[in-house]
Fold these 3 entries.
Entry 1:
Amino acid sequence: VSWLAVEAGRHELENGMVIEAGRASGTHAASAASFSEAFAKAPVVFAQATSAQDEAAVATRLWDVDADGFRFRLQEEEAADGVHGRETVDWIAATEGRNDGLEVGRTGAGATGSGGSDIDFTDGAGAGAAPLLLAGMQTMKGGDPAAVRLQEIGPDGARLFVEEETSRDRETRHIGEDVGWMVLLEDVLVL
């Protein structure tokens, strides 16, 4: 499990990359989150429910990610009632690009349940090292509950795919989603 902690607020790195961390709240209905100020273009966003007010498990789904913010909802498994109580959602938005030890990008609409998507890191993480990788869908083209899964990772790249859950049926075909990713080429990166 890879993870990243970022102090709330907006942070600009030496090379001009911007990382912003914030908090919103939402339910099963569409909600919106705004950045403190606009990015130059749509950033890559990672979001996760960080409270447990409702006992049902959820996936945090994003769409309409643009320079000003994004829309999201909490999505329960298909066999559940589809109604979810209000939860806290923490998010991190980052400019695409590369800074020492950090790279951020997106797959485009290629990550599916059947084929997946290869991503190449600009510079390898070093001989034999597997970098830390975060990934999250930037779109909600497929309506079934799904999550990004890692198929393989190495110093020069990774293969991601979108996996649907099977609580109600065995069908797992998923339309291509744009998956954003962040790779940390070091175990500890202090920004």
Entry 2:
Amino acid sequence: EMAANGSLTQEIADYLARVVRENVGSALIVGSSGAGKTTLLNALSLHIKDATQLAVAETFKELRLAHPYPLRAVARAELNTIYTRMRPDLILVGEVVSEESVEFLRAVALGSRAITTIHGASCLSGLVNLETLAVQYGKLDQHVARQWIARSIDLVINVDRAESGS
């Protein structure tokens, strides 16, 4: 549907769907407020296989999932328990805005696949914001945060809102 309305090309839509369907990487969706980050994450979630052990962590419930058996936690503190004890195939984090940044990075650094959204004006600013949050809230050394990001984020997707609002 997003490709049909011109929000992205069919080639990009097919690529993103394949990444999610085959669960081959961790992704960071970057954009400003109202740019469509959560809309894209919701759309991508439609391509998660039913057999995928899915965990969802959100500070408030905003993801609308079609997956039949998600393990869902609406609390930041639960993310550590989810990836260390439940061992899901994929973790969706509603949005990284504070201390969940460190838990998201720990999860992907330990090999969990995860997708989240973060505010930023570009791919680079999203990565820098993730690093800054991890340093600020997780008291991580900047070098450690940067290394975890470099080793763990496979794909950065930038979304932006056109002047028309689309």
Entry 3:
Amino acid sequence: MKNNASGFKLNEKKISLASRKKILSSFLKVLQVCLKKEDYKKIRKVKTWQDQKLHDVLINLRIEDKDRFSLIYDLMQKNICLNFFCNSNKLPNLAANFLGIKNDEMMMTSQFRMDTPSDQRNIYDWHQDSAYDKLNSIPSNGVILWMPMINTNKKNGTIVIKPKSQNEKNVYKIKKKWKKFVSPQLTVPTSYLKKYRSKDVSVKTGDCLAMYPNLFHKSGNNTSKQIRFTILARFNKILTKDFTIFGNRI
């Protein structure tokens, strides 16, 4: 904990351009299957995550066809390209270094996010990731790696954190229950948020933000004209008795 006293660490230039291009290529293959032909024609020659044509098609799709947009999201969560991305960038080593352990003492899950402008259905208010997964009861036994595919800033809704809040227990109230097209919300009560100052962390492409699962954080409001594409990798220690699978078995 001494090396990460604020609960987070910004690792610069850890994510390769080649890996970002490769996952874009995989994403376009998903879009080729899911989009209508006339929409795919508009974006089939896209070469970068910043191309506005890509953003325009997907933003409009989310408004006009929620099922189709949701299918794209769901397929990307199952796509093996996320594993390739994590391993090619040696994210297990990065996570192990943050946690002070060997990289064969953890489990990993990954996620692809598409946060659209002016989103009200899926944007996350102040929360702790550990309130959702509860894989380790000790907050310092897990880490989240957060990696944007486009440069993030206040305008496109970069991540906002509460430094030094990582030692708080799971504290939340249910703001939204899960339902179709709407993400569940387990939000941190205001009384806890007041104890810490907020910090916007503008993460550039190629950088990786590491933070403890109990750290209070939220998505900023995206007021730009682009989607905030991000990849998250979550690592948890599995060889400690606070790991959920142990229970009372030994």
